[in-house]
Amino acid sequence: MKARILPLDSDEHRRAQELLPWWVNGTLDDLETAQMKEHLARCTVCQEGAAALEELRDIPLVPSPREHVDRAWAALRRRLDAPKNPGRGASAWHRWGNGLRAAVAIQAAVIVGLALALWWRQPPAEPYRALGAVSASEANAIAVFRADATQAQMSAALRVAQARIVGGPTASDAYLLRLPDADSAALGRLRAQPGVLEVQSLQAAPPSR
Amino acid sequence: MLRNFSVRGPGATTLKRSTDAVDLNLLGRVVARDMRAFETLYRIYHPRLERFLGLITPRRTIVEEALNDTMLVVWRRSDTYTGQCKVSTWIFAIAYRTALKALRTQDEPVAAPAVDDLVCDDAGPEQQLDQRQTRATLMRALDTLSAEQRAVLVLTFFHDLPYAEIARVVDCPLDTVKTRVFHGRRRLRAALHDCLGANS
Asked: Which of B4, B14, B23, B25 is the best mutation test for A, with the most CBs of A within 10 A?
């Protein structure tokens, strides 16, 4: 079919130009996809636009190395472990008058009492369940392979850990794995394999804080 | 290239659904104060948020701070997630608001982007140089746009989000998202053209 350039003010062309980015990232619905296919087949302007956007998407964006993520996580843990607003409460407290202090103390005691009563009467929290989480519920670990990992390295790593892939890659390039036993020793063995960048357990840990 | 691993093709919907289920599972455990689940969620989202924040804010220090601020909110406010959108949309919306707030409070002149920090160490010297140049060009071109325009472009082209989800992240109507991307990519293209012309 001979391609032709549609006038830029045509409604169809304008709509196609608007939707082009999501045509390129593959997230349009079926109807929009069919309309775009039809339009692109006969519009060279949009064909060129799509090619230019594909080039933009191909710019490599490489994540930080694991040590950097470890440092960032350690920094966040320090913030989580630090007491909230140390000192601020104390100075504000001293500015208040004696009467106000007593009133707030009584109010606080009532709130704590009510909270305790509510807590005592509440049934234990139900575990959080995800609808349709069939394949994901099988997974007990997540692994990210290096960008340059070969198929052979990935297969060897999975063999060593007796793991099988049950899902992925996710948007973060992680694979969902099922290991016979996802304990720290097994995860450590997998993590030590060439081509493996990151391994994390998906099993619940005892609650903290 | 890492992008080659991203979810595409006919099986993509199923895989995305399983990703959503993992996110939901982890967030549910975070609500129950499971620190190990939170660490897993953090490590899953670190590269995605770094990519998002790194392209909408010009400074490395803002990126690091905004990323941890975002995840701190996720930890502290996990019980406010209502399930009306995907977990990723909820987290990206927090990151977007955090980044805008950080950018507004920054009144110092903008420094050159920390390109070296985001270049793959495993690449050969020539490939590394190429990556640095390409990324520097992209950052300079993005820098000519507003933070709001940068965010919608980055979510579209580097996170493959549908426009409806982007509208939820940036909290604006669908048509506004389409218009921002439409004008943003024109400006980006012109800026990339200028930057490439200046480099050659």
From this structure: B25
How would you list the strands of the sheet with A141-145, edge to edge?
A164-167, A174-178, A141-145, A196-201
ipTM: 0.76
DSSP 3-state helix, strand, coil percentages of chain A (rounded to 5)? 55, 10, 35
CA distance B9 to B96: 28
Q: A132: alpha, beta or left, given left = phi > 0 and alpha = psi -120 to 50? A: left
B53 has a chain A CB within 8 A of its CB: no
The minimal CB distance from B35 to the residues A17, A19, A205 is found for: A205
Fold for the domain defined by A138-201: Alpha-Beta Plaits (3.30.70)
Helix (H) or strand (E) holding A39, with range, is: helix A30-40
Per-residue pLDDT 10s for chain B (200 aa) are 323 333 334 445 555 666 788 899 999 999 999 999 999 999 999 999 998 998 888 777 889 999 999 999 999 999 999 988 999 999 999 999 999 998 888 754 444 444 444 444 555 666 666 667 777 788 888 888 888 999 999 999 889 899 999 999 999 999 999 999 999 988 888 877 776 666 55
Q: Minimal CA–CA distance to B42: which of A174, A127, A81? A: A174
Q: Is the pTM of this model over 0.80?
A: no
Q: Can you give the residue ranges of every domain in chain A?
A: 11-57, 138-201
The single residue listed with the structure tokens 């930080």 is A64
Residue B191 CA to residue B186 CA, distance in Å, equals 9
Classified as helix, coil or strand, A61 is coil
